Amino acid sequence: MSILRNLSILKTPSVEEPRNETLYDQRLTYHNQGHGTSKACLGNFHNLKASLEALFYKYEKDCKDGEEEQRQLKHPYITEQKGINTTLLNKSETLGGFIEHQSKLENQIEKLQQDKINVRRNPIDYGIEVNARSSVKFWIGLFLLLPISAYIFIFYISTSYSGFFRNFDPSIDLFGGIFYPQALTEAYKDGILEIGFIVFIPFVFFGLGYLIHMFQQNKGILKFFKIGMLYVITFLFDAILAYLIEGKLYDLDKVYGDPNFSVSYALTSPGFWVIIFAGFVSYLIWGLVFDFIMKEHADRDKIQVFLSSLNAEINNKKKLLIVQIAKIDTLRDIIDKLKIRSAELDNIIDGFIFPIKNYKNNSSQYLQGWQHFITSELSMGQRHKDDLLLKCSEQYDLHIDELGLNNFNNQNKIYLKSS
């Protein structure tokens, strides 16, 4: 039917029925109207259809014209809309703050990205003092350090094996006692412990050199004591190796009547000091070059360290930006849903609410009045009466179905404002 165009069925809050008159009076009025109309047309069920339609049109018009009744029916929706508008205002302010924070994070990320480019061009602008020749010094130092490291590796492998495991023969001279080309091969034949000892012992000295460099980074007088102790330990170890090797060489040349090899003799032996300085001096040189390289590397690496800090800060800002964008998207979804509901409420408030339950109650009373005349006053056989009463009931059900009011579980039906 045309009167049902532009209607929308929504879940409605429970509302109180307006009471301009008592429920009993309403029912009695509609009952009497049905009785009177039925009496006028002798209960004809065809007339019932037109009467019900007229009844609905009048009831609908009364609902539209009843401002006070509509105000009461729309009161829950008006209250809901006020709450939504307040919530929308608060959410919009919160969204503005979120967007402002997002923009701030994006600007910070963009600036950090620009800093990554500018720091390479003008490091001094970022408080980074870089020696232009530091890279050259670094590569020269590294070029010197590698062969010195190889020398120390060979020296300590040879002297350690000669001092602790090797058996000398009379043809061995001082140089042959220090450097022994077959040290690794012979140690391998002697066993896994021997080969492990002489292979790893050079790394002890490299470790001592690294510790000296690390202690030099410290502040205070204590660092000098620690560095001095490391030098003493290295010197003593070289002295032990020199004493063992020089002692073995002395025993080869010893003749009857010569005194036993002793510390005092070793201190006066040139070979003893040659072995010490061949190791200890090279170790000192290695430590100084290593410390120089590390300092030059730190100088040339200042920019890289600064870039690493920028990258870490950028990654942190990006994580915060992702969280912020997720908050904004969630809040926008909430605001969109609230706006949709607010628009629905606008249409409800601008439209009108039809109290279905009231109409069905009143129209059923109208039907009962109609049927009451047929039952009590119309002169015809009982069989014809029953048939007419059934047709009247069917006509009423058809009327309710055509209006689409039979499938409603709610108190009211909402007719939205026409677009």
Topology:
Layout: H1 23-40, H2 45-65, H3 67-121, H4 134-164, H5 174-178, H6 183-190, H7 192-216, H8 222-253, H9 263-267, H10 270-300, H11 302-350, E1 352-354, H12 356-376, H13 382-403, E2 413-415
Antiparallel strand pairs: 1-2
Helix pairs in contact: 1-12, 2-12, 2-13, 3-11, 4-7, 4-8, 4-10, 6-7, 7-8, 7-10, 8-10, 12-13
Structure description:
- This protein is 77% helix and 1% strand.
- The protein has helices at 23-40, 45-65, 67-121, 134-164, 174-178, 183-190, 192-216, 222-253, 263-267, 270-300, 302-350, 356-376, 382-403, and strands spanning 352-354, 413-415.
- The radius of gyration is 53 Å and the shape is rod-shaped.
- α3 (67-121) packs antiparallel against α11 (302-350), α6 packs across α7 and α12 (356-376) runs antiparallel to α13.
- Residues 1-20 have low confidence and may be disordered.
- A two-stranded antiparallel sheet has the order 1-2.
- The chain is mainly α.
Largest sheet: 2 strands, antiparallel
Distance separating the two termini: 18 Å
Q: Runs with pLDDT <50, length 5+? A: 1-20
Number of strands: 2
Helix content percent band: over 70%
Count of discrete alpha- or pi-helical segments spanning 4 or more residues = 13
Helix/strand-derived category reads mainly alpha
Descriptive labels:
single chain; mainly alpha; 13 helices; rod-shaped; disordered N terminus
